[in-house]
Design a protein that fits this description.
Strands 9-7-8-6-2-10-11-1-12 form a nine-stranded mixed sheet, sandwiched between helices. Strands 3-5-4 form a three-stranded antiparallel sheet, with no helix packed on it. The chain has one domain (about 1-35, about 60-290): Rossmann fold. By secondary structure, the chain is α/β, with parallel strands linked by helices. It has seven helices and twelve strands. The structure holds S-adenosylmethionine.
Amino acid sequence: MLDIHFGDNLEIIRAFPGGSFNLIYIDPPFNTGKVQARTQIQTIRDENGDRTGFKGRRYRTVKIGSKAYADTFDDYLGFLGPRLEEARRLLAPDGSFFLHIDYREVHYCKVLLDSIFGRESFINEIIWSYDYGARATKRWSPKHDNILWYAKDPERYTYRYDDIDRIPYMAPGLVGPEKAERGKTPTDTWWNTIVSPNGREKTGYPTQKPLAIINRIVRVHSNPGDRVLDYFAGSGTTGEAAVRQGRSAVLVDSNEEAMSVMARRLAFAGPRFHGWEAGSGAEESNGLFAAARNATP
Ligand SMILES: C[S@@+](CC[C@H](N)C(=O)[O-])C[C@H]1O[C@@H](n2cnc3c(N)ncnc32)[C@H](O)[C@@H]1O
C-alpha cells in the first residue's frame, strides 16, 4: 500500500494518528524555502558615489559579504523543530526515526533531537561516505552525510540483525575462506556512491538519495508489513525501498515536480495520491525542481 500526499508536511502529518508508523526517515532540504540572504555593505568616500552623506559628501556602497548562512540556520531549526516533534508523536512504540542531514547542521539537529526524544533514545550516527566529485583545495573535502537514528523506546526497537547485507572484508586473507565468503556486517560508516548521473536509478530529481542506503534502513529497522513514513519524500526513494520490501509507505512532498517524478517512479506500486492528480499541475521541465534545489546532496 502506498499513499502520496501533496502539500506542506506539517499540516498533513499533524492529521495522522499518533503511534501509527514503525519507521520514519526524512531527508529535509537545507533551505527552508525563504531567501534569508542578508548582504553587508560598507560606504566609502567617492566623489562619483551614488549616496550623499554628512555635509553633502558623496559615498559609494561596496558589498563586503553576506550573512546568508547564519540567517538560514536560525530559520532552519525553527522550521525543522515542529516537524521533528511530530516524528516522535507518530512513531509506534517499537519505532525508529532517521534524520538525514549534513555536517553543517548535524550538531544543532542532534541537540534539538536529544531534547525531543531524550538523550538515551539516540542510538547511532551513521556516516554515509560517498567520495565523488571535485576536491577542495583549502580544506579536507567534505564527502559524507550524517544520518541520526533515534528510537522511540531505547529498550525496545526493531533491529533485524540477520537481514543486514554483508560487505567484503578489507583483508579477506586474514579471516579464513568461510568468513571471507560470508562477508562482514557494515559499521556505522556506510560507503556508497551517490546516485550515478548516468545510471538507471537516476530520476532527474536533485538530491535523490541512493536506494541502497534507504533499502538498508528499511530492511533492518522495520518488519515486513510495517508502515514507513517519509514526509520530505522528493523522488520517492523511501517509497520504492519500502514497497519493494513488503512494507507499506506514506510519502509527503510540497513540490509538484516531486509528485510527477513519484507518479512515474512508483507507478508499479499503484499509489493513491491525496491532494494531487497526475497531469494536474506543472510537469517537470528540464530539471527545474525549484523547491529542492538548495537541499542536501
Ligand atoms: C532533499 S529532498 C528529498 C530527496 C529524497 N530523499 C530522495 O531521495 O529523492 C527534500 C524534499 O523536501 C521537500 N520539502 C521541503 N519543504 C517541505 C515541506 N514543508 N513540506 C513537504 N515537503 C517539503 C522538497 O520539495 C524536496 O523534495
